[in-house]
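Hello forum,

I keep getting stuck at the same step: I have a sequence, I want structure tokens, and every attempt I make locally crashes halfway through. Rather than fight my setup again tonight, could one of you with a working pipeline run this one for me? It's a single chain of 759 residues.
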Amino acid sequence: MPVKGFYFYMQDVYLIILVLLFILAITDLVVGVSNDAINFLNSAVGSKAVSLRSILIIASLGVAVGAIFSSGLMEVARKGIFLPQEFYFEEIMIIFLAVMLTDVLLLDFFNSMGLPTSTTVSIMFELLGAAVSISLIKIFNTTNDISHLANFINVEKASEVIFGILLAIGIAFIAGAVVQYFSRLVLSFKYEKRLKYTGAIFGGVSLAAIFYFILINGLKSMAFVSNHFVENVNDNRIQIIIFSLLGFTILSKVLISFFKVNILKIIVIVGTFALALAFAGNDLVNFIGVPIAAWQSYEIWSASGVAASELLMSDLAGSVPTPEIILIFAGGVMVLTIWFSGKAQAVVDTGVKLSRQNEGSERFGATYLSRTIVRYSIIFGAAVSDVIPKNFRKKINSQFETPNTKTSGREIAPPAFDLVRASVNLVVASILISMGTNLQLPLSTTYVTFMVAMGTSLADRAWNQESAVYRVAGVLNVIGGWFVTAFVAFLGAAVFAAIIYFGGLIAIAILVCITAFFIVRNTLSHAKKAKAGKRQKRYKRTDIITINEITVESSVNISQVISGIRKRYTKTVDNLGYHDLGKLKKNNKKVGELEKEIDDLKGNIYYFIKSLDEDSVAASRFYIHLLDYLQEMVNSTRYITRNSFEHVNNNHKNLKFNQIRDLKKIDKKLQELFEEIKYTFDEHDFERLDDILAEKQQLLDMVSEMIEKQIKRIRTSESSPKNTKLYFGLLLESKDLISSTLNLIQLFREFYVEAKTTL
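Reply #2:
Ran it on my machine without issues. Output:
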């Protein structure tokens, strides 16, 4: 049989493909919801309006209602991007399979990176890419006139998507910044008292905006809502807005005055439910729209009795509702994902960290572009500030002063931002999405909610000179990722479609295996990162307030670093003996993790000192010196691993047998020392510290003996300058490593003895 197109004559084959598409749909639901969770969880999680459990319950209700009562009209997948009447059934199935494979891989990649992206943009550009690919193949097989591409693609819709992306990014950021700025001017950071007077108006406007958003974006996708109702809402929107404003303002006043309710919490709770409802009702098409369209295509083809390569899918352009059981199942998968997906938490954390008010470790590193933007922004801000009268400027600045309250170190971490900003995030996002829907603009909820959050954080002066370059770099990374999503989605689906078209069943099997491999690998990698993250959180604690807690925390830090160093040292000596370049490179890279851990600890010194009670402040000097010794130990380890790698990488001669043997002797003694130290600090058996210190001179003498041996070798048999350089370097850094380690033990011993006398 000639290989021309995608010939499947057996109905069972297409049934298998259909089953495969639904399996991919379940996977896509998981990875898609994990990415889109930031849309409705960000504000509630960041402000800690209620407990995390309550937030998840509220979001779950919104998602469940939105999914289960969705009308299930999956229009975009069937006719939104391409014209189905121009494609045969076999071509349609190729397009849908290519789209689902690409979407699962793409969204899972972004989830693993902890970056939010748009599921709307990904699915649309995947449909566009796959359809363009098959269209070009059809054209080259017939007319070779590429201008006929417009006959297959809905060019107008594709153009609207691109325009909507660019428009949404700018408008959402500016709107969020402007509304937050004036909200803060009115309420300030000390908003509790002012809410008694302005809370009713703020609550009325906010709840009315969210209510209108539910009407426009939530209920319109519900199956039980008639078209007549939707038309009435659109025709009477002015009256609805006015009456809802009055009604919710009165309700807010009653709640504040008589029931002493914090109206901001109500806004956040209702807003979270509204966004979750709209997300499930409107974005469900992004996850199951393609498999549903494939199922409908299969039913049309099965009933036709026409060959798969001859049936044009004109009937696919109609409106066919999705069965209720599928919507219920999809809603269940989405709810479970919200509760149990670690990747969803990672994506939400990215949004929260980029918008948080307080300082802390930054997710993204500074870039040239972020530095340039911040530098010129500071210059521009200074110029504007000079124009504003001093008294007026002072009055404005007073509204942005954050309360300077010292909390107990035992309290939970403070919210990333306050309820005012969380409310503005939800209200502005709701208004913008409602307006976009009325104007029939293809908006991405991810783009709108994320950029609103970034705009409000900028207006709230969360991006100060301490953090601005990192926050700007993070925003640029996320925005860049959005455009990468569009490009990769288009290109990936186009390539997959072509591969399936020409490769048939074998190509499908290979692509499915590749997809499964990457999903499993990314899942395992994420689990590993999550485990490492939990370990690093131990390093980042700032809640130490007593001498005992300092002792315990220092013990944990010492044990962890010692454990890392002993592994790296042994592996370096072993791999150097085998001249194993790959393992030496990997080992050298691993030392970078140790350096980052120490850097994180040093970055936390400010918060550590601030958290100490008055009786423990003197212990900060001990902690600073302890970190300095840990830094010296890691630096010595870095020198040993880097120089060993460079020596082998430059193809220099192997170290001689006697040299490797001597290094192994040192390694053996160091392993015994490190094992004893680790046991001491893990078990808090600090009486053993004197015994450890007694071994100091013995170890140093051993290294000195090795140095003398090498000097004799040079005088008699050594003939390699590079070997000599490396060997001396390893011995001297080993000596420094031993000295730094035992100096640290001495420091801890002195601190421990002094602490015992003061307790």
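The CA atoms of residues 524 and 634 lie 28 Å apart. If your local run keeps crashing, start a new thread with the error log.
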